[in-house]
């Protein structure tokens, strides 16, 4: 931007004095466009970071869930193991929904879970906050963990397998790490909604 030079006379001198004050005109269109492009680039970087966090949490929770179930199948073949208070570890097989509910509806539950996972993965691709990315990742990882159980664990056929549960509070249906992820993720989603930062 060119500066406008004004000539003025000093009260004590007959010669003009240069006054190099910049001309303050309207902001150019190029400056506006460059500012908008910077904002867009920052938004894209943020979305990419949150997307990676979403997939990392989903994959990490899925692996954690499957490892704990494999451990439970090998380590909890005997009587329940007391941990603390009413908490104990007891191996059970559930052909229903989460928390041992909906017995006998395994294939339908698995198909419904796959539909929910597909929708959440689509949302997770453009998630806009860290908390929402973690929440969606926990739900997807947990849901996939139980779907894998139905698909590969047991001899009843594809999607007719049973989910491994082993966390027993004795006053609540037996559950697993996948269920913990789904519930915690749902709670975090509610928190993001109340904070005014939807996925």
Task: Describe the model.
- With 199 residues, the chain is α+β, with helices and mostly antiparallel strands.
- The chain has one domain (49-194).
- Helix content is 54%, strand content 13%.
- The protein has four helices and five strands; from the N terminus they run E-E-H-E-E-H-H-E-H.
- The chain has helices spanning 29-75, 106-124, 130-152, 177-194, and strands at residues 6-9, 16-19, 81-84, 87-94, 163-168.
- It has a three-stranded antiparallel β-sheet. Strands 1-2 form a two-stranded antiparallel ribbon.
- A hairpin with a 2-residue loop joins strand 3 and strand 4.
- The two termini are 42 Å apart.
- The relative contact order is 0.15.
- The model is unreliable at 1-9 (pLDDT under 50).
